[in-house]
């Protein structure tokens, strides 16, 4: 059996920043972590973490050694690899740069330049299929912001950037991991600050289980399960491995329906996580494969795993303990536990947890499968003439807010001939929010529930704006045209008056779910 003796992790502190290091072969690697990411932004400030990462590097002298910056859901990393003295100089410069940004020392020209660079880069913090699953589940808040386009990025001010940096890019909200001893004279002059905990991502704004039409070719299933900080962490590791093994055996080698399956987890809180299962397949097979995967998950919940399967999982994780990079990974995990990002136990404790997994543990891990399930099916998998009710589960549905009474605008002449405007359509705007009803559906947003308003560009400069899309924080949208309603110009003007100007822009919206 492979030795499971824990690697030696060294701990120290530099300028108030906790430092973890382990002797590993190769050049010195440094990873400076901050507990901040996309989930800490708002729809109005989407992209601000990525912007600060760019600004921090842009203020530095030319760096000759390997380096990188990365923004994830709840973590931002600055990495450098090279000679110890070069790495130390880069880390000191980066920390000084972040301190200057937090103090508001950002030239307007530099801010404008880096905003253009971000627009050119146009990347998401997570793969598109995961961003879509998170956005569909959580809307435009918390983890759901992974799917948001930074439509307001050009409006970010130096004050907003400084405030965000001063809150999150601090010594109390950071940790440094090194692949060797700290270089002599290392300095980390970050601003003072405390650890900033995760925002509380709200539960899904729509009823689950549900099904959505994905924008990709693969199958995506997500559901709630215990997180790495729970006593069931070993069972979660077993679930991911055994599910993949069974699906590959039956649906790839047995029936040729899939190419591969990937199982990953997104931390929601220390105690809860979101499992995300993706399958590479021919889109037309997605419904059949989804049913088979769900059947496998239910079997694992109801019957557990076999002794041979558990032994195979344990052997695979034991083998991972032979990797020469394990000490660095362990140092990283300890650092991330310190700042509240990662919660998986050290490798030796994880092995013990895996080895003691029982059938009851598997039942508990999958206890929330049915009520928390969200399935993304590629469009090609849907039958012709597919209705809005879904194939496996209902489609996500907006939950109207109670906005109270308001001024009512009924369908006008143009609305009578416009396709899709029901005879009984009416728009109500009052103190509590707005409500669009008609054709048996109701969509209502309190003013505080509106993430933004996208206005269609007027036909000519100075003309009245006659169409907009109201974007809810739950990810649902409703499109309005003034001509649809009697007094429609007044209705849209009322919306413009009630929604803060900072949350309004002129652009077409690529929305996920339109009312």
Radius of gyration, taken over Cα atoms and rounded to an integer in Å: 26 Å
**Mass-distribution shape:** flat
- Summed over residues and divided by their number, the pLDDT gives a mean of 91
Spatial gap, N to C terminus = 58 Å
Structural class: alpha+beta
Q: Mind describing the biggest β-sheet?
A: 6 strands, mixed
What share of residues are in beta strands? Answer: 15-25%
**Helix count?**
14
In the predicted model, the low-confidence regions spanning at least 5 consecutive residues are 509-515
> Percent helix among the residues?
25-40%
Total strands:
20
Within the largest sheet, what's the order of strands? Answer: 1-2-6-3-5-4
Structure explained in plain terms:
By secondary structure, the chain is α+β, with helices and mostly antiparallel strands. The chain is built from 14 helices and 20 strands. It has a six-stranded mixed beta sheet. A five-stranded mixed beta sheet has the order 7-11-8-10-9, sandwiched between helices. Helix 1 packs across helix 3, helix 7 crosses helix 11 and helix 8 packs antiparallel against helix 10. The longest helix has 22 residues. The radius of gyration is 26 Å and the shape is flat. The termini are far apart. The C terminus is likely disordered.
């Amino acid at each position: 059996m492979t030795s499971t003796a824990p690697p030696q992790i060294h701990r120290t502190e530099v300028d108030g920043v906790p430092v973890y290091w382990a002797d590993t072969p190769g050049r010195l690697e440094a990873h400076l972590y901050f507990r901040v990411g996309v989930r800490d932004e708002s729809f109005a400030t989407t992209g601000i973490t990525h912007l600060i990462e760019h600004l921090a590097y842009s203020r530095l002298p030319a760096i000759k050694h390997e380096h990188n910056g990365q923004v994830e859901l709840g973590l931002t990393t600055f990495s450098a690899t090279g000679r110890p003295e070069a790495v130390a100089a880069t880390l000191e410069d980066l920390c000084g740069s972040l301190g200057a940004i937090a103090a508001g020392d950002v030239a307007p020209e530099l801010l404008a330049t880096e905003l253009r660079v971000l627009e050119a880069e146009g990347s998401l913090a997570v793969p598109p299929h995961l961003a879509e699953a998170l956005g569909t589940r959580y809307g435009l808040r918390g983890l759901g912001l992974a799917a948001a386009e930074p439509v307001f990025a050009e409006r970010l001010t130096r004050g907003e950037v400084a405030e965000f940096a001063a809150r999150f890019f601090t010594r109390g909200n950071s940790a440094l991991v090194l692949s060797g001893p700290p270089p002599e004279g290392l300095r980390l002059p970050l601003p003072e600050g405390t650890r900033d905990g995760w925002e509380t991502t709200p539960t899904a704004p729509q009823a689950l289980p549900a099904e959505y039409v994905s924008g990709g070719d693969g199958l995506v299933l997500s559901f709630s399960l215990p997180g790495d900080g729970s006593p069931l962490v070993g069972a979660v590791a077993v679930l991911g491995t055994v599910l993949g093994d069974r699906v590959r055996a039956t649906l790839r080698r047995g029936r040729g329906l899939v190419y591969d399956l990937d199982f990953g987890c997104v931390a929601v809180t220390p105690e809860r996580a979101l499992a995300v299962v993706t399958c590479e397949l021919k889109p037309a097979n997605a419904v059949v494969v989804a049913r088979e995967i769900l059947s496998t998950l239910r079997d694992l919940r109801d019957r557990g795993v076999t002794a041979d399967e558990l032994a195979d999982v344990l052997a695979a994780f034991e083998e991972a303990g032979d990797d020469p990079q394990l000490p660095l990974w362990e140092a990283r995990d300890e650092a991330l536990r310190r700042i509240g990002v990662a919660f998986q136990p050290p490798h030796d404790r994880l092995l013990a947890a895996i080895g003691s997994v029982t059938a009851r543990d598997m039942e508990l891990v999958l206890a929330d499968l049915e009520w928390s399930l969200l399935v993304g099916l590629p469009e090609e998998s849907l039958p012709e003439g597919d209705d809005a009710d879904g194939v496996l589960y209902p489609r996500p549905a907006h939950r109207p807010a109670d906005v109270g009474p308001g001024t009512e605008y009924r369908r006008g002449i143009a609305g009578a001939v416009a396709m899709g405007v029901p005879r009984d359509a009416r728009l109500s705007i009052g103190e509590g929010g707005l409500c669009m009803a008609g054709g048996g559906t109701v969509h209502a947003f309190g003013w505080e529930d509106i993430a933004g308003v996208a206005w269609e560009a007027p036909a000519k400069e100075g003309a009245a704006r006659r169409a907009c899309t109201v974007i809810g924080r739950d990810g649902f949208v409703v499109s309005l045209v003034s001509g649809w309603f009697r007094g429609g110009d007044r209705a849209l003007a009322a919306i413009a008056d009630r929604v803060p100007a900072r949350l309004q822009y002129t652009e077409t919206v690529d929305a996920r779910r339109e009312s």
